[in-house]
């Protein structure tokens, strides 16, 4: 069992997630916060429903996450002209700054966790995980 690839992948992922969560928590953020801010930076604004679908997060979880970020001043929620029912979340300048800081922390954790791998092995490992993820998610 200890040499089973899927078991090792699970244990490694759990340990990595814990380290990433710890780094985010040092900035008073959860990983969901970072994920939402990253999505908004990449191609926001989004309605909460769109964010939930994009990130595969439940509607109540995305609502809580966006509300947390809005309370911290990292996200603004506005109604676009012409659609009073729609509320869009977008990253604020403070949110962009916070995201840049936490991203640097998360990259430092990644560097530490992947230290045993050469740069070429890191690229190869990332490529394999990128191929595996959609397959496993679709199983």
TrEMBL record:
Biological processes annotated in GO: response to stress
Protein name: MarR family transcriptional regulator
Domain of life: Bacteria
Chain ranges of the HTH marR-type domain: 2-134
Pfam families per the UniProt record, alphabetical: HTH_34
Molecular functions (GO terms): DNA-binding transcription factor activity
């Amino acid at each position: 069992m200890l040499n089973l690839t899927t078991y090792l992948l699970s244990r490694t992922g759990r340990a990595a997630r814990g380290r990433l969560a710890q780094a985010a928590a040092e900035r008073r953020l959860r990983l969901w916060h970072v994920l939402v801010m990253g999505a908004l930076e990449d191609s926001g604004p989004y309605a909460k429903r769109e964010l939930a679908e994009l990130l595969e997060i439940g509607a109540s979880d995305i609502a809580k996450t966006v509300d947390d970020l809005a309370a911290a001043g990292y996200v603004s929620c506005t109604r676009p002209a012409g659609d009073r029912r729609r509320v869009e979340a977008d990253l604020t300048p403070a949110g962009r700054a916070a995201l840049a800081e936490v991203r640097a922390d998360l990259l430092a954790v990644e560097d530490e966790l992947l230290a045993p791998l050469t740069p070429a092995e890191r690229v190869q490992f990332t490529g394999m995980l990128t191929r595996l993820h959609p397959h496993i998610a679709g199983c």
